[in-house]
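ZP: hey, is the zinc ion complex queued? I don't see it on the tracker
AM: it wasn't, my bad. submitting now with these inputs:
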Amino acid sequence: MTDCHACGLIVWAGPVPANDNQPSCFCVTVAADFELRRRGHRIALAAEINRLGLSRREVVNWVADEIYGYSGAVHWPNGVTFPIWDTLVDDAFTDGSQSWVGDFMKQSVNAPLIRPQKRVIPKLRLLDLAIRISDPRLAARIARGLNDN
Ligand SMILES: [Zn+2]
């Protein structure tokens, strides 16, 4: 539990306690590395990206639109501001053909058991962030690995 650097309210590291009356931060929090490495999270995230019905290149454009178009604050799970600069998305998705995105989208049916390499984490975090911005409730379900419909 810490204070958000953007709004000063409490950032909960896990689910917000149902009976807690303290005002808490509703800024968007990016996923922690350990969450992004969880297989259940990757499968649920891949499924939701597929549900957008976009090509792999369009997915990256959608991620950019969501992140650059968001006017609220974004922070790390520890409350520190998550920096968004104008080439953030391009810097992460450097492969022009976006074949990694195409491969990732297939993980909704067959996600590798092996944990993703460190260089993949920023891509996963931005895909996840775009979902969190566009649909916070859905993002909470993905975080719990409960993509059940
Ligand atoms: Zn906040």
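AM: back. The chain has a mean pLDDT of 86.
ZP: great, adding it to the tracker
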